[in-house]
Design brief:
Radius of gyration: 19 Å
Structural class: alpha/beta
Helix content: 25-40%
Bound molecules: cytidine-5'-triphosphate, calcium ion
């Protein structure tokens, strides 16, 4: 770690990281969730701490504990995650949205535990869209003259319509963030793996060489890139 003025360092910078997977309540004991392990977010928090940053971790459900030394804001649902991220945003220099935010939540949360009935009718769960937290952060940031760097993550597969890179470029444009970390997923690449490969896409159209290695290697690359953008 270099002196505070060192180019590329996050010394004294405020870094907010969302991590883990949100859980969307169905009733007091059930939820809709996802398989996010939270490991990438924890690696980002560790890497930011190692660079001397002041780290706020907005933490949804994760399989691994948060590192010591960061401020942890526990959340469960996407709505709670949004509130926590937007609250931290004004004081944030770098926001990294590593959380797996549920796209939908049950339209209604039953006040009491849902029960089976004998009349043969099974429940139908209606879903509604959750807010796009990353997009909202970008819009909130635009009202603020101070320089902030906002980073999103996207796991993409190719399909008939486009390859992963094209999907990611479209997503980056739609979100309006500065950087999108593209993780190409396929049948041999599974959520929760300890090793990964990503490409960093910039809003200006440039892209990094592939970054391969542990989630910590990816975290270091993402934060180094964010620090460069911050000091630009
Ligand atoms: N994200 C978010 N709020 C949501 C959904 C996603 O802030 N409601 C963030 C994620 O944390 C991630 C980025 O947006 O950093 C991309 O997530 P992704 O699920 O790939 O994007 P979506 O816009 O939900 O697109 P898709 O329909 O492909 O799931
Ligand atoms: Ca999504």
């Amino acid at each position: 770690v270099g002196p505070p003025s060192a180019r590329g360092s996050l010394q004294g910078r405020r870094v907010t990281i969302s991590a883990g997977g949100t859980r969307e309540a169905l009733d007091p004991v059930r939820f809709l969730g996802n398989r996010s392990s939270g490991k990438q977010g924890m690696a980002l928090a560790e890497a930011a701490l190692a660079q001397g940053a002041l780290v706020t971790l907005v933490l949804a459900h994760a399989e691994v504990p948060p590192p010591a030394g960061c401020e942890v804001v526990r959340v469960e649902s996407a709505l709670q995650l949004r509130d926590a991220v937007l609250e931290a945003l004004p004081a944030t220099d770098v926001l990294v949205m590593a959380a797996a935010v549920a796209d939908f939540r049950p339209a209604e949360v039953a006040a009491a535990k849902m029960k089976k009935t004998d009349d043969g009718t099974d429940p139908v769960i209606t879903l509604v869209r959750n807010p796009d937290v990353l997009r909202e952060a970008v819009l909130a940031r635009d009202a603020d003259a101070r320089r902030q760097v906002i980073v999103g993550f996207a796991a993409e597969t190719g399909d008939a319509a486009a390859d992963p890179l094209a999907h990611a470029r479209t997503k980056l444009a739609r979100k309006g963030c500065d950087v999108l970390v593209l993780n190409v997923v396929g049948s041999d690449r599974v959520f929760g793996q300890d090793s990964t490969e990503v490409t960093l896409l910039d809003a200006d159209g440039s892209e990094s060489d592939p970054v391969r290695g542990s989630k910590r290697v990816v975290a270091d690359a993402v934060l180094a890139h964010a620090a460069r953008l911050l000091s630009r």
